[in-house]
Amino acid sequence: MPRRRAIVLITEGAAPELIDRFGPGRLPSFHRLLSEGTRGTMRNEPVPYEPPGLISAFSGHPPAVHGIFSYWKVHDPDYRPVVLDSSSPRRPLLWHRPELSGRRVAVINVFGTHPVRPVDGHVISYPMRATTHACHPRGLPVELAGAGIRPVHDVAVWFSGQAREDFVSPVLRADRERSAAALRLADGADLTVLNLTAIDRLSHAYWQELEPGSPLPENDLAVLRAYQVADETLGRLLDRADEHTSVLAFSEIGFGPLRSYCSVNDVLAEAGLLVPGPGGRPDWSRTAAFESVQGSQGVNINLAGRYREGSVPPGDLPAVLDKVRGVLLDHVNPLTGRPLLAGALPREEVYPGPEVAEAPDLVLIPADERYLPLGDPFWSGRTYRRLQSGWHRRESYWAGLGPAFAGAVDGGTAVPHDIAPTIMTMLGLPVPPDLPGRTLDGHTPNEPAPAEPALDGRVPDGFALDGGAPP
């Protein structure tokens, strides 16, 4: 009897409301999957970001266990957050587990796969810097080029305010090349994983085109073009679903509008908790707290013994945390006249687990998701963050079709670390006992939704936490 096969497509940044808005006429494959398959909501961590979500999905563990909270290390002794790589997660990704021994894989463009580690099959990794050694086996680029396929890395196509088509076309081309590679490599694979990033990249840069008053016709929207590229790929993958092959599509993040990033370092400086130094960097010897790297959405205390110029003795940590929390929760966003934050939570409340020390000391919960913490200026400036008009949201979608999903249409709410056990069932393998997630097969009931972190009670009555007000 043929072995079970699994195909997994990540449509990074896909927002369910846009799938509905664009409709089956423009996105026939998305709507086919949602109507014929088992579907549900994907709900990310309180801080929705690609690296923790993807590592959760493919390690089968939440961030407090695998230890990844951003693209960069949250606590670097020299205050220059280093890029994380395939050696950083504290738990192995699924294709490196012994349970998949003898199963061939094809993994394309997933964070946490670079530098490449050998697998039984093929990998096109997700490098965070330019490199010519991003594949396994090393000769894979030559093989693909012989078939006219030339994948490029995200870092090779970066938005810096260039003309619209000079950015949009290379981003879409990158997803088309990845799709072509995945379709070619899937023929010999038991497990195929493809991550498409154009929806995310173009939603960051061109979300304003989606909003009321946009002068662009719907068919000219840059974001729609990214969804259509993903839809075409999804359709070709769905055509491979049969009695032995299941297809799962999901996004670890949703998307929504952004109005402005707000510098938490400026708030800390006004309160005397951060002292600016030469070159715009803090004077570390006189700084008690500073904003953590983007994506981690938090504040770090400049703790002696953890940082090269730590100024806060460990015994003073509780008092400093309380002071920082009070300052941040009292801060009014001058752009709205409302509180900037709904919560400034100790990391232990948000990320209980053995790797909680890798998270920022305080995790910031925006009161309005359209106004977000800027992040450490060393990286936020280099990534042109202030040019963005859209940002991540916690909720997106998941949907599956094939023998692993035969049954109910409504699969309920999932969390990212449910993906790994689901892939095991798609492959017809038992779920390893160390994986805490549930399978999304329409039969196993979802685990109860985790309790939301308690907020601080300082948000005025009637203030929407979902970004619904103010304008």
From TrEMBL:
Protein name: AlkP superfamily phosphohydrolase/phosphomutase
Taxonomy of the source species: Bacteria, Bacillati, Actinomycetota, Actinomycetes, Streptosporangiales
Leader peptide range in chain numbering: none
Source domain of life: Bacteria
Region of interest (Disordered), residue spans: 434-471
Pfam families (UniProt xref): Phosphodiest (PF01663)
